[in-house]
Design brief:
Radius of gyration: 13 Å
Number of strands: 0
């Protein structure tokens, strides 16, 4: 079984998400990204669609 492993490193988020509304918010709207962030920081995060 092949596993792709990566390393976690600290970066300036503005390098990846230069505009919160245009870049970060859509990324967080994807369930797999939100779950990965939730798992990493140890806090249960849910989208409030109401």
């Amino acid at each position: 079984m092949n596993k792709n492993l990566g390393k976690i490193k600290e970066i300036d988020l503005r390098e990846i998400f230069s505009d919160e509304a245009r870049d970060l918010t859509p990324w967080l709207a994807k369930e797999e990204n939100l779950q990965a962030l939730s798992d990493e920081i140890g806090i249960d995060i849910k989208i409030d669609s109401g």
